[in-house]
Structure formats: structure tokens, C-alpha cells
Write a structure and sequence with these properties.
With 395 residues, this protein is mainly α. The protein contains 19 helices and no strands.
Length: 395
């Protein structure tokens, strides 16, 4: 199950991040502003975010496997249409939206299934392992899009290539994912209590700030390196993708540490350092300093924080709202992914206004610092299984 989910996550992230090194090229080719180019990426995340909670409800009712496969097929059609027919701004918006609409079911189905299937003491580790797919996809998508563009001379060609592994994931899911529980969903009253839980809200808002800073760097990082640090197209995509190199061990490391030391302590080690790393990126000038900063950021970035926050949400839901894992994960990811809608457009707007992307990256750093304060006021929540094991070890 876990390897299939890792692969699925990798493919989705390669599909979405291949766009970012090409944003400036698309803007020039179609004669559109940076704000409108950012809106192409934002369209994906808008529909991706909107589908989080509904697909979580659906997963609780009909099973995560069934919902994931149907929606992943729609996402495959979106990326294929983007590559074959994305010759204008409206068409790029439409196919980006379709791609995001289909991809929106993956997170709640993937993590809802995992959190329900693994014991509490392995949730952080399992989340980190699945997060490896995110890191691999970021590196692969960003590293491949520039060379494919240069070789074929079209910004659409990389997405045609990416559509192939996206479609191939469908039989993999059918073969390796468990069917999962189906049946009646929890009552509306139970869901209302879930959505009003203050601890879930604080973790979610902190994750929002982490993801905003990450996507501010990931979506416009290549353009920042090209325009303000003198990197080539291929270099900018590859170097921004270096975030994934340290994110690979980072997600697994911090997820496992949170299983042992606790979610709160680990979060307060990771999130503030990530904010500082993003701030340093706006000041780094030499190629060596930029590369080192990106590697450092990757080790503590959203890919490191997400396994902790997902496991933390799982601890709360299994203790307080059993049977609602799909909806809870969908609610969590739907809200935090709204940052990915805002980050590309707000960053593009700040670039249009100031003529530089440094203010956009700095804004992400400041938000992440604010998220750290929220975590400081969020209590640790242990599952019943964890408390029983603690009592046994002391008894």
C-alpha cells in the first residue's frame, strides 16, 4: 500500500511542479502578465482545494480506493489536455482546473486510508514515507520540464510526457490499495464537532503558513533565480528542485522524531527554522549560498512539517472523532491548500508591483513565523492506544 501511495504522490507532484520553471515562458509566449501566469497554477489549486472535503466525505462513505481511482482518471485527462490543447490562456486555465479537480481526491483518500490502517506510533513515519513521493515529484518535475522545453521547443510537450505515468498509476492503485471501509458516514452533528475543534484549526492554520511559504518559493523560485540571480532556465528548475533532495530524508526523519518525542516539540523545532531558511534565500547572492540555502530549506520545509501535522490530526481524530478520518484529512488539506491558490497569484502581484520576487518570498517567511506561534499554543494530543502503552510501560 505505502509504495503505491508514494508513487501516486510523486506523479501528482511531478505533474504540478513541471509548470513552475515554465511560468515566465508561458507569460512571454501568450503575452500575459505574471499575475495571470500565476493564476494558471492557482486554478489547479483552487479546484484541488475545493474537492478536499467532498472527496473526504465520499471516502468515508464509499471507500478511499474507489474514489481515488475515479478522480485520478480525471486528473490524468487534465494533464493530457494541458499538453495537447493548452495553446491559450483560457484553455490552460480550464485544463489546469480539471487536473486539480481530479487530483483533489488523492490527499484525503491517501492519508485517510493510511491513518486508519497504521498504528499511532507509526503515523509520523508513514506520513514521512508517503511525503517522499512529494519530494521525488518536485525534483523530477522541475528538473525535467526545462530540458524537455529546450529539446522540443514547446511548453506543452513536458505535460504530454507526464500524462503517460499519470495514466499508468490507475492499474497500480487497482492492484495494491486496500478496499477500505464502506458504509454509513458519521452523523452531521459529529462532523460539526470535528470542524469546530480548536486544536485542529490551530494545526491547520500553522500548516497553511508552512505551505504558503513553500509554494511561494517553489512556484516563483525558478523565475527568481532566472531574473534576479542570473541562473539559466534549466539551472533554475534544477536548483529549486534541490529542495526535494533534503526533503526526502527530512520528512521521514521528522515524522519519526514526532512519533517518539511528540508532535508539538518536533513542530517547534522544524517550522521556525524553515521560516529563517526562507528569509535567508532573499539575501543569498552567490550560487553556492543559494544552493546551500535551498538544501537547508528542504530539510525543514513543508515536506518536513506535513508528516508531523498529518499525524497530529490523525491522533486527534482517532481519539475524538472515530470514523471521520477521510473528512478530517480533507478538511485539513482543503484549508491548507488554499495557500497554494494564493501564493502563486499574490507572489506574482508583488512582483508586478515591486519589480522583484524578494518581497514575495519574504512574505512567506513572515507567515511561517506566525504559524510557529500558533503551534506554541496547541496542546499535545495522544491517542488511546498511545496512552495504554504508556500505562503498560509504567505499570
Amino acid at each position: 500500500m505505502i509504495p503505491a501511495l508514494i508513487l501516486g504522490w510523486a506523479v501528482l507532484y511531478a505533474d504540478r511542479t513541471a509548470l513552475y520553471p515554465l511560468l515566465s515562458i508561458i507569460a512571454d509566449d501568450l503575452a500575459i502578465s505574471s499575475t495571470r501566469a500565476g493564476a494558471i497554477a492557482g486554478a489547479y489549486f483552487l479546484f484541488y482545494s475545493l474537492l478536499q472535503i467532498p472527496s473526504g466525505f465520499a471516502a468515508d462513505r464509499w471507500g478511499g480506493k474507489r474514489v481515488l481511482i475515479i478522480m485520478f482518471a480525471l486528473s490524468s485527462l487534465g494533464i493530457l489536455g494541458f499538453g495537447l490543447m493548452g495553446s491559450s490562456f483560457p484553455l490552460l486555465l480550464a485544463f489546469s482546473a480539471l487536473h486539480g479537480f481530479g487530483a483533489g481526491a488523492f490527499y484525503p483518500c491517501c492519508f485517510g486510508t493510511m491513518l486508519s490502517a497504521v498504528p499511532p506510533e507509526k503515523r509520523g513515519l508513514s506520513s514521512g514515507l508517503i511525503g517522499m513521493g512529494m519530494a521525488l515529484g518536485i525534483l523530477g518535475g522541475m528538473a525535467a520540464s526545462g530540458p524537455l522545453y529546450h529539446f522540443f521547443g514547446s511548453y506543452r510537450t513536458p505535460f504530454v510526457f507526464l500524462a503517460v505515468p499519470t495514466f499508468l498509476m490507475l492499474p497500480v492503485f487497482a492492484r495494491f490499495l486496500p478496499a477500505g471501509r464502506t458504509g454509513a458516514s458519521p452523523s452531521l452533528t459529529a462532523y460539526k464537532k470535528l470542524f469546530r475543534d480548536r486544536d485542529i484549526w490551530k494545526i491547520t492554520l500553522a500548516s497553511f503558513t508552512s505551505l504558503y511559504g513553500f509554494w511561494a518559493a517553489a512556484t516563483w523560485g525558478p523565475a527568481f533565480l532566472q531574473a534576479e540571480r542570473g541562473f539559466s532556465l534549466s539551472q533554475s528548475g534544477l536548483y529549486t528542485g534541490l529542495i526535494a533532495l533534503t526533503a526526502l530524508p527530512g520528512g521521514v526523519l521528522w515524522g519519526r522524531v514526532s512519533d517518539r518525542l511528540g508532535r508539538k516539540k518536533t513542530s517547534l523545532m522544524v517550522l521556525p527554522v524553515s521560516a529563517v531558511a526562507l528569509f535567508i534565500l532573499t539575501r543569498a547572492e552567490s550560487p553556492g549560498a543559494i544552493i546551500a540555502t535551498l538544501l537547508f530549506f528542504g530539510l525543514f520545509s513543508n515536506t518536513a512539517f506535513t508528516p508531523i501535522s498529518v499525524a497530529w490530526i490523525g491522533d486527534i481524530v482517532s481519539r475524538r472523532y472515530p470514523g471521520s478520518m477521510g473528512a478530517a484529512v480533507g478538511f485539513f488539506n482543503g484549508l491548507i491548500m488554499s495557500s497554494a491558490v494564493l501564493a502563486p497569484m499574490v507572489s506574482g502581484f508583488l512582483r508586478d508591483v515591486t519589480g522583484s520576487l524578494s518581497p514575495a518570498i519574504l512574505a512567506g517567511s513572515l507567515l511561517m513565523a506566525g504559524g510557529s506561534l500558533l503551534i506554541a499554543f496547541t496542546p499535545e494530543v495522544r491517542s488511546e492506544e498511545q496512552e495504554e502503552k504508556t500505562e503498560e510501560s509504567h505499570g
